[in-house]
Design brief:
Helix content: 25-40%
CATH class of the largest domain: Alpha Beta
CATH topology of the largest domain: Arginase, Chain A
Largest sheet: 7 strands, parallel
Strand order of the largest sheet: 6-8-13-12-9-10-11
Oligomer: single chain
Strand content: 15-25%
Mean pLDDT: 84
Structural class: alpha/beta
Number of domains: 2
Amino acid sequence: MQFRKACLTTLLSWNGSTNHKLLYYYQHSKVTIPTILIATLTTTSSSLSSMTSIHNYLDRTNQYLQQQNQNQRDTNSPILPTSRAGLDPTDNRFHQPIVYHPNYSFKSWPTNHTFPMSKFYHTAQCLLQKQSHLPRPLVRSNQDFFYPLNVNTIPYNWISKPTGPIDEQFLESFLSSSLTYEQQRIIGFRELCTYPELISRTLLEVSGTILASHLAYSYGVATNVAGGTHHATTSMGRGYTILNDLAICAKYVMDERLNCGLISDVDRVLVIDCDVHQGDGTASFENLFDNDGYGDVDDDGERKGKKEFFTLSIHCESNYPKQKAKSTYDIGLPDDLGDHEYFEILVDSVNLAIEEKRPDFVFYDAGVDVFEHDVLGRLKLTENGIRKRDRWVIERCVSEGIPIVGVIGGGYDKDVTALARRHAIVHEEAAYVWRKYNLWTKAKS
């Protein structure tokens, strides 16, 4: 089968003495779902000039492309950075595109750790099982999930400076299992930071939110069964988070050089963070596009086409972190706040942020650690209160045509099955909005 190369971009980034050549191939076919193949060629500096090596690599790339093509479904969906396409959204009248990967969780994680690593698996299982409030399972088959790019095909330029927002040295230290003891302690995972499975799932989580961004851009809303790593900064991880997927993906959707124009005209991104803990790490990225060379300068000296990143954090003021960062909007809530008072503050805060900043794209951190019995939460929301919150935020964006990505954020409970049911709420409420607005009929061409 013949494939047309719609775009070929070669990017070069340094990793010590090693070069990673990232070759982007966008595959187009009328009978299969278009995909992005992102393959990494690792060579020494001296071999970069070897055209034989590169031609051999291109041959292997084309073989891989053809293999991927055989596994794709018949659809006219947009180009996506996916290792496996899920249910075609234009044929799906029940739920929005949902991104998941089985390696978001892994079995070697200590069962007594405060961070419930198995919650991602259990959330996916919850979506695959019939719940009392739904006429059928939300997701009928594992094949209906969209899978992000596999770890060995995730390009580091999405993540690492100068194109991404994460410090190169920090990323290299994490990927090579060489973080210092103090760095591991602040993250909260200590020696577990060296687990290959943790490194892989951290990359997959970022790739999953990027895939969800493409899907939301095309269809209005999409969700990831992970994400919301809002304590991590550009140069360090904190509070059980290592790479800040919200900041990485915000830069990705605004940077047409990075996404090769597959996402365009996104100049203002807003993060709505409803986790019980302040999104301090995300707030530290607010100058994401400063001095990034975007836009021409007009007659008044202002840069046209400026990219802007805003954060709204609605959190429990007394909770972690002790020293708060400065978000665009910080709403510190008192302990023991319940459903009614919380919802009033939510509506006022989100309305203000949307009306003042006029975002082109929204990332929504739907943390469920606001739940009244959460191990690390200090608020008193019920499950119905969480459900009302999620539905309102998602519909507020969709009703105005603002693409929104939902990520699950924090949630802590020794009963992981009960926790998974709460994490499933954001996916269920996104599905409600999907059906209400017939979003399967409104895909971008």
